[in-house]
Each structure stands twice: as structure tokens, then as C-alpha cells.
Write a structure and sequence with these properties.
449 residues; alpha/beta; D-Maltodextrin-Binding Protein, domain 2; 2 domains; 10-stranded mixed β-sheet; two-stranded antiparallel sheet; 19 helices; 14 strands; 41% helix; 15% strand
Length: 449
Amino acid sequence: MNETKRPNGSSAMPTMNRRSLMLGAAGLALGATAFGAYRPALAQSKPSKLTVIGDTAPWKGTIIQDAIPAFTRETGIEVEYVQLPNEPMVTRARAELTGGGTTSFDVVQMGASMIGWMHPYMADVNELMKTAGGRYAADFGMDEFSPASIDLASYDGVQRGIPYRSTTYILHYRKDLLEAAGIAQPPRTFAEYREAARRLTEAGAPNRYGVGICARQGGAIVDHFGPYLLSSGGGFYDLAKRDIWINNENSVAALDYVAGLINTDKSIPPDALTWEWDEIIANAQNDRYAMGLVLNASATPINKAEASRTRGLWAYSTVPGAQSAADSRSSLGGWCFAVPERSANKEWAFEFVQFITSREWAKRSMEKGNASARLSVLNDPEIAGSYAWASTAAEQLKTARANPRDPNWGALEAQLRAGLSKAYLGQASAKDALDEVASGWERAMRRAG
């Protein structure tokens, strides 16, 4: 991924080690002195080190480069952030959490797709709050997080983590290109979106297309389909009732619409069939599409990176609705930080979680590609002045919906990836592709009891 820059020109998103990062050593010399000004009233003895495990995505730049060294200087505690690709991270977490012993890690980066199986092993945040004695114990501001983000970090009504990153899809569009094509305002409905895509593709030929999307059969394909699915009135399933919605009339219409943009209108670059998270950003930076339903946080590297050819040209709006703007819905994802119930350092681990998710660090994290889960940050006038997408994201969060969070979602999602890919490649109609997915889901649900 291209690096972004801070307003002062310094690097904001450098390439990071994909394995284990030992951080905070530079601040250890100051630890004893600085700790004198930072004495949380924690009953637990202070450990020499805390270990965090998480994925390798670059949005943690502020945590790793800035917040961890600051925490070390203030407390004298070294923090090791072990970064692993997503699947190995989940494998390690599952092995240790289900093993019955004390975990080697004190904090885990818990994603929306993980809480379905991970929640029994995570400490209850409300219980941790009751015994917290650190600097944030009296005024952490949990009410500043969006309700959707809190729900994403909860299971069966119990909050298991504190949100750090809240991702939702919003309409990214080039205002200059829309105006040049005679379009006065961003599209509010699917019909307007399709017409704008056609005109923008025609105007940008042969290299720039109307719409960008992640259409590779991989980790991004389902989430990028989500806004179209939800805004059409479709959905995935109701696990409690064993109702499958993925092949109902609205869901089929959503897939038929996106497949039509690709195969009929040819308003999406053919190589979008190979795009995932990095490619949707890089191709926006390189002027390959004029609008798209893209992650809120992607707006920072797209619109602010010095390497971006389209820097400063993007504007933002909520996702178009199928029939009207009132139909606008978006996928909701994100990450929280959670403390294992069997961590040897629960109190200090929770102090670290509160530190990195505090108002100060939530606001600073926006510099390096994060999308804060705090509405107070997204609606902050200073943030709105620097990140034009923030207030739109706050508005979209009101109707954003998370993917299913039951323990079986990973296997079911894999089947949906294959179905979407068949439709995008023109190998099956939207109805046939989703009927096949629904049949697979029925069998999987029966096997799961």
C-alpha cells in the first residue's frame, strides 16, 4: 500500500513488519521517571511486558509507532505487538483460548467475524470497568462510541471488547468528473448510480471507468457486495429461525445489479475481478474509476497520500438506495481490542486497551488510516476539516449492519464468495448462483444442528 503523509509532510503509513514487532524499547530509559507522573491505582502488580496479537493491516500505524512508545514511557511496561496474517492469527488465538491455560498474549485484536466463537473466552468489559483504577477509570467516554460499534464488540448483550476501528462503506466520488459529465449531485438511487456509471465510463474511456469494486474471490468480495445487498432490502440469514435470505427476490436483484455493471454495462474495469483491499485504493489513486462504494477509511490514503494522482479530488456521500435515499444501508465491520479471561495481567492489559482507544489516541489514529469508532472523533470539527469523509461515515453508521457473527459464518461466507464470483465472471445468473449458495447453507446449518 502506498504510504500516506501527515499534514507536516512526515510519513504516516510506512511499511511494517509482517511478523513480530517489539516496541517501546526507546522509551524504557525514561520509564522510571515518566512513571512517577502516571500511577494508575491498579491492585495488580505491574508486569514488565504485555503481549498483543493482531493482524498485519497497516491501519495500526498510530498504535505501533506512537501510542505504544508513549505507553511504555509513561508506565515502564514494554509492549510486544505480534502481527500475523489473519488466518494464522485466528489459528493461534483459537489454540490458546480453547486450550484451558493462561494465554501467552494479554490483549487480542478481535474482528467482527471472530466474536461468534471468541466471546466465551473474553473478559466482560463492564466487569473490567468496575475494577479499573487507571487514568481513564472515571471518564473513559464509552457513550461516545457509535451504538453499532458497541454492538459489534458484543455478543448476547455482553460487551467483550472496546471498539477501535469502525468500517462502513460510503460513496466515494469525483465531483469534478460528475460535473463534467453533466451530473449535478451524487447519485441517491441505484438507477441514478447506474446512469452516472455509464456516463462516467464513456467520458473516461479507455482507461477510467465509472465504478470500482473488489470483485476477486477473496476476503473483500462479500463486504463490497454488502452495501448493494442491504440497500436492496436483501440480507444473509436469520440463524435463530434458520431463515435464509441470500436468494430471496431482493438479494437476487442486488447481485443482478452488480453483475450488470460488470458484464452488461461494462462500467467496472475488467481487472476489478482481481481487486481486493489494496487494489481498490491503488486504482483510485491511479485514476482508474470515478466513484465506488468503498470503505470509509480507504478515503485517507486515496485522497491524502502524496503519491495519489487523484489527491484532493474526492468527495463523499451516503450509499445510494435501491429506490430512494431512504433505502441506504451499508455493511459494518471493524476491530476491537479484548482482554482474555485467562490473561495473567488482566488489569494492566485493560489499562493498555483503554489507553489506545482513548479520545486522544482515537483522534490521532485518523492520521494513519484508521476509522475511529468514536462518534465524538468523526464529528469533531477539526477532524471534519481534515477528513471530509468522517461526517459522512458518522451518518452512514446509523444504518450500517454487521455481517452474521455466529461461529459458522466463516464457512458460510466462503460459499458466498464462490457464488458472487460466478455471477461476476458471467458463469451463472444471479439467481442460479445464489440458489446454489442457499442450498449449501441449508446443508451446513443442518450439519451444525
